[in-house]
Amino acid sequence: MAVRIRLKKMGRKHKPFFRLCVMDAKTARDGRVIEELGYYDPMVADTDARAVLLGERIVYWIGVGAQPSDKAVVLIRKYGLNGTHLEAQKAALAKIAAKRQVTVAAAIRARKGGAKAEVAQETAPAEVAAAVED
After folding, report:
1. Does one domain contain both 95 and 73?
2. Per mean pLDDT, which range of 24-38, 63-77, 101-115, 119-133 is the poorest?
Protein backbone atom coordinates (compact mmCIF):
# COMPACT_ATOMS: atom_id res chain seq x y z
CA MET A 1 0.00 0.00 0.00
CA ALA A 2 1.49 3.34 -1.08
CA VAL A 3 0.96 6.08 1.47
CA ARG A 4 1.11 9.83 0.81
CA ILE A 5 1.15 12.92 3.03
CA ARG A 6 -1.16 15.47 1.43
CA LEU A 7 -3.20 18.57 2.17
CA LYS A 8 -6.91 17.86 2.48
CA LYS A 9 -8.96 20.92 1.52
CA MET A 10 -11.73 21.97 3.87
CA GLY A 11 -13.47 25.24 4.69
CA ARG A 12 -15.85 26.95 2.30
CA LYS A 13 -15.81 29.21 -0.72
CA HIS A 14 -13.23 32.00 -0.31
CA LYS A 15 -12.29 30.66 3.17
CA PRO A 16 -9.86 27.78 2.57
CA PHE A 17 -8.55 25.58 5.36
CA PHE A 18 -6.27 22.57 4.93
CA ARG A 19 -5.41 19.56 7.06
CA LEU A 20 -2.10 17.77 6.57
CA CYS A 21 -3.12 14.11 6.36
CA VAL A 22 -1.70 10.67 5.73
CA MET A 23 -3.75 8.99 3.01
CA ASP A 24 -3.62 6.00 0.71
CA ALA A 25 -2.17 7.09 -2.64
CA LYS A 26 -5.33 5.98 -4.47
CA THR A 27 -7.66 8.02 -2.25
CA ALA A 28 -9.17 11.27 -3.55
CA ARG A 29 -7.76 14.56 -2.24
CA ASP A 30 -10.64 15.05 0.20
CA GLY A 31 -11.18 11.35 0.81
CA ARG A 32 -10.59 8.90 3.65
CA VAL A 33 -7.70 9.74 5.99
CA ILE A 34 -5.39 7.39 7.90
CA GLU A 35 -4.12 10.08 10.31
CA GLU A 36 -4.18 13.87 10.57
CA LEU A 37 -0.77 15.44 11.16
CA GLY A 38 -1.66 19.11 11.54
CA TYR A 39 -3.34 21.96 9.76
CA TYR A 40 -2.64 24.99 7.55
CA ASP A 41 -4.91 28.04 7.60
CA PRO A 42 -3.95 30.53 4.86
CA MET A 43 -6.47 33.09 6.16
CA VAL A 44 -4.43 33.85 9.32
CA ALA A 45 -2.82 37.28 9.01
CA ASP A 46 0.54 36.34 10.56
CA THR A 47 2.36 34.10 8.07
CA ASP A 48 4.24 32.11 10.72
CA ALA A 49 1.06 31.26 12.64
CA ARG A 50 -0.66 29.65 9.66
CA ALA A 51 0.61 26.08 10.08
CA VAL A 52 0.65 23.84 13.16
CA LEU A 53 2.13 20.37 12.62
CA LEU A 54 2.80 17.26 14.70
CA GLY A 55 6.51 16.88 13.95
CA GLU A 56 7.10 13.51 15.62
CA ARG A 57 4.25 11.84 13.73
CA ILE A 58 5.47 13.29 10.43
CA VAL A 59 8.94 11.84 11.07
CA TYR A 60 7.33 8.46 11.84
CA TRP A 61 5.29 8.37 8.65
CA ILE A 62 8.19 9.44 6.46
CA GLY A 63 10.26 6.76 8.20
CA VAL A 64 7.79 4.05 7.22
CA GLY A 65 7.75 5.20 3.59
CA ALA A 66 5.06 7.87 3.22
CA GLN A 67 5.76 10.26 0.34
CA PRO A 68 4.85 13.92 1.01
CA SER A 69 3.35 16.05 -1.77
CA ASP A 70 5.23 19.12 -2.98
CA LYS A 71 3.17 21.53 -0.85
CA ALA A 72 3.48 19.26 2.18
CA VAL A 73 7.29 19.22 1.81
CA VAL A 74 7.36 23.03 2.02
CA LEU A 75 5.28 23.04 5.22
CA ILE A 76 7.32 20.22 6.77
CA ARG A 77 10.62 22.01 6.07
CA LYS A 78 9.36 25.22 7.66
CA TYR A 79 7.24 23.95 10.58
CA GLY A 80 8.14 20.27 11.02
CA LEU A 81 10.19 18.77 13.87
CA ASN A 82 13.43 20.61 12.96
CA GLY A 83 11.82 23.34 10.87
CA THR A 84 13.48 26.57 9.81
CA HIS A 85 10.66 28.84 11.05
CA LEU A 86 9.89 27.25 14.45
CA GLU A 87 11.04 30.19 16.60
CA ALA A 88 9.04 32.67 14.53
CA GLN A 89 6.04 30.31 14.72
CA LYS A 90 6.20 30.13 18.53
CA ALA A 91 6.36 33.91 18.78
CA ALA A 92 3.44 34.35 16.36
CA LEU A 93 1.26 31.79 18.18
CA ALA A 94 2.04 33.41 21.55
CA LYS A 95 1.07 36.81 20.13
CA ILE A 96 -2.26 35.42 18.89
CA ALA A 97 -2.94 33.72 22.24
CA ALA A 98 -2.27 36.98 24.12
CA LYS A 99 -4.60 38.88 21.77
CA ARG A 100 -7.30 36.25 22.36
CA GLN A 101 -6.99 36.62 26.14
CA VAL A 102 -7.41 40.39 25.91
CA THR A 103 -10.47 39.91 23.68
CA VAL A 104 -12.04 37.51 26.17
CA ALA A 105 -11.26 39.89 29.00
CA ALA A 106 -12.96 42.72 27.09
CA ALA A 107 -16.04 40.56 26.61
CA ILE A 108 -16.17 39.85 30.33
CA ARG A 109 -15.78 43.54 31.10
CA ALA A 110 -18.65 44.39 28.76
CA ARG A 111 -20.97 41.84 30.39
CA LYS A 112 -20.21 42.21 34.08
CA GLY A 113 -18.29 45.38 34.73
CA GLY A 114 -14.60 46.10 35.26
CA ALA A 115 -13.66 44.12 38.39
CA LYS A 116 -13.46 40.60 36.99
CA ALA A 117 -12.14 41.73 33.61
CA GLU A 118 -8.96 43.17 35.11
CA VAL A 119 -8.33 39.91 36.97
CA ALA A 120 -9.09 37.87 33.85
CA GLN A 121 -6.28 39.46 31.85
CA GLU A 122 -3.74 37.97 34.22
CA THR A 123 -5.31 34.50 34.44
CA ALA A 124 -5.09 31.47 32.19
CA PRO A 125 -7.67 30.99 29.38
CA ALA A 126 -9.46 28.19 31.30
CA GLU A 127 -9.90 30.47 34.28
CA VAL A 128 -11.18 33.22 31.99
CA ALA A 129 -13.77 30.86 30.53
CA ALA A 130 -14.87 29.91 34.06
CA ALA A 131 -15.26 33.59 34.92
CA VAL A 132 -17.54 34.09 31.91
CA GLU A 133 -19.82 31.28 33.09
CA ASP A 134 -20.27 32.87 36.57
Report:
1. no
2. 119-133
| Structural domains of the chain, count | 2
**Residue 64 belongs to domain spanning:** 3-84
Helix, strand or coil, per DSSP, at residue 24 = strand
List Cα–Cα distances, 67 to 98, 109, 122, in angstroms: 37, 50, 45
Is residue 17 located within the same domain as residue 77?
A: yes
Sign of the four-CA dihedral 51, 57, 62, 66: negative
Compute the average pLDDT of residues 18-29. 92
List strand residue ranges (DSSP E) for 3-134, in order. 3-12, 15-24, 35-40, 51-53, 67-68
* Per-residue pLDDT band at 134 (split at 50, 70, 90): very low
Q: What digits encode the pLDDT tens for the residues 46-64? A: 889 999 999 999 999 999 9
Eight-state DSSP code of residue 69: P
Sign of the C-alpha dihedral computed for residues 57, 96, 11 and 128 taken in this order:
positive
Residues 98 and 128 in one domain: yes
pTM to 2 decimals? 0.72
